[in-house]
Amino acid sequence: MTAMDVHRWRLRRGIPYRFEHEGASLLVGVNDLVPGKVTVTVNADGVPRDTFELAVGDTAEIAGRLYTVAAIEAAGRGYADLEAQS
Prior knowledge:
Blueprint: E1 8-12, E2 17-21, E3 24-34, E4 37-44, E5 47-54, E6 59-62, E7 65-73, E8 79-84
Antiparallel strand pairs: 1-8, 2-3, 3-4, 4-5, 6-7, 7-8
């Protein structure tokens, strides 16, 4: 899977998402999740590349593509929904 294949992500706490981008193996995951805020980390080939602290409506560039946080749910397993920008 590549970043261009992902139009909407439901990032769940404790579940890493792996894909390839420009020859690098990326790992995207939720580092922290509290009501109204999510911290997302991107590792490239096992090395931390980016960390984003985001609220609903915030935008982050992941693998050359902009994603906007559409929803955050901190209860239970928790998740953050990210939607790709056109």
